[in-house]
Amino acid sequence: MEAMDKRRLEELTGVFKALSHPTRLWMVEQLFESEQCVCEFVDVLKLDFSTVSKHLSILKQAHVIEDDKRGKNVYYKLRAQCIPTIISCLENSLGN
Questions:
Q1: Which residue blocks in 20-48 are alpha helix, DSSP H?
Q2: What's the predicted TM-score (pTM) here?
Q3: In what order do the strands lie in the sheet with 36-37?
Q4: Which one, 14, 22, 90, 95, has the greatest CB density within 10 A?
Q5: How far apart are alpha carbons 72 and 38 in whole angstroms?
Q6: What is the CATH number of domain 3-94?
Q7: Mean of the pLDDT values across residues 18-42?
């Protein structure tokens, strides 16, 4: 395996790892339609701010989402626009 192939595969693996947690996958699905503030995720999930931030950080490091700081709030939006298509394809394959 060439170095370029290995690096590409490692980056793709990172995306799948980031999406492999139910909470993170749910967060990404919420971002299909519109951006969300961290505070909105905290309110809905009933998790600590630090836990939500950690999940979002993992998704950001995998280049799945990106953030936009506005004053005291941080808003997230989907960066990998292909994710909804991938999820839809997988759901169809599973018969959902």
A1: 22-30, 38-45
A2: 0.90
A3: 36-37, 73-78, 65-70
A4: 14
A5: 11
A6: 1.10.10.10
A7: 96
